[in-house]
Amino acid sequence: MFVFISRTSRRRWPPLSLSSVRQHLLYSSATTTSSSNLYDKYSFKPPISLHKSPNPNPNPDKTSTTTKKAKPPYQPPSSLDRGGAKPTRSDLPFDFRFSYTESDPAVRPIGLREPKYSPFGPDRLDRVWTGVCAPAVDPRVGSVEDGKEDPKLEEKRAKMRERILGEPLTSAERKALVDRCQRNRTKRQINLGRDGLTHNMLNDIHNHWKHSEAVRIKCMGVPTVDMKRVCTQLEDKTFGKIINRQGGVLVLYRGRNYNPKKRPAIPLMLWKPHDPVYPRLIKTTIVGLSIEETKEMRKKGLAVPPLTKLAKNGYYGSLVPMVRDAFLASELVRIDCQGLEKSDLKKVGCKLRDLVPCVLVTFDKEQIVVWRGNDYKPIEADRFFMDRDPFDNPDNDLFSGPEEQNSDDESNQHGFHSGTSR
């Protein structure tokens, strides 16, 4: 067996002859011809969609109507490219501020937290931003100290307001307007929150006056501590008249001669400017006391039972009379403000200091502790700002209706979280 394998492996094949090569070539050519005939017979053409560049519109007569237009490039609202537009000019006779109720022009700041960038946008207003306001008198004002209100502006505002209001409303007309602004009659309402009467809110009020003669304004939070200032600023900046007030709900009338087509031009603020730097409200030591006496008073004030608890976005119109009454029995008063922002605590304390008046002791642990001082004198009751004001005629029956009484009860429920002392 092994011998056979060795003999087979050593076998040599004879060399190929010319005739065998010719026969091999002829056989290969015949095979190629037959294969090409089969391809032509059984081949297929692929559909149009499989081509690399198909025709999107096979019917040239019909045009597609679903083509979308290209979106324009995004342009931010504060873009520097204004297209050659001129700055907006406003003839309103008062200085433009972010908040007219929460800022006092008589109190000057000690510094600014940001450069004097105008919140109205670059080159959008013909007034110069001083860091606090945009004065209406001299557009060349370059600092906060130079911006003083012209005494003629107040006289000009009084004349404009008198011309727009016209003749005073009668009792029947006033009752009809107040009835239209009730919650069960309309849902149109402007909310005045923690920032108070802002500049952009003036534009909202004029937009509401396009559709109705009066607008309902609901005041909530810190500005309600001083409702007298809120009402004064609303009438002074809008040239309207408040015809009804129940707690924190106001009804602002536009006037007989008001023309929506001739409304004043009110440029809008594009962002909220940073608050300037004011002097500290809480000093290291209270005036007239030593450091040890100040520490002892702060410790004692935090241990006093709270007079009341302020609810977030509540109505604080009765806070000042309550503090004044509490000072008749105690020299220290504590107000619980848990849940309120720290800036709101400072604003409420600043208003109490000016309205009561009193001395601020501390803001620790979300509490407001005030001291009546050594020379405290009670304020007469006639200086209080009533929750219900008599308008024009003191003998009218504006508040005798059941709807007004119900709405007043609802507004009082939104006041303090706890109306009684604990």
TrEMBL record:
GO cellular component: ribonucleoprotein complex
Keywords: mRNA processing, mRNA splicing, Repeat, Ribonucleoprotein, RNA-binding, Transit peptide
Residue ranges with Polar residues bias: 413-422
Region of interest called Disordered, as start-end residue ranges on this chain: 47-95, 389-422
One Pfam match: CRS1_YhbY
Residue ranges occupied by any CRM domain in the UniProt entry: 167-265, 287-383
Keyword Transit peptide: yes
SMART domains for the chain: CRS1_YhbY
GO BP term, example: Group II intron splicing
InterPro entries: CAF1P_plant, RNA-binding_CRM, YhbY-like_sf
A single MF term (Gene Ontology): RNA binding
Residue intervals passing through the bilayer: none
PANTHER family: CRS2-ASSOCIATED FACTOR 1, CHLOROPLASTIC, CRS2-ASSOCIATED FACTOR 1, MITOCHONDRIAL
Protein known as: CRS2-associated factor 1 like
Organism: Actinidia chinensis var. chinensis
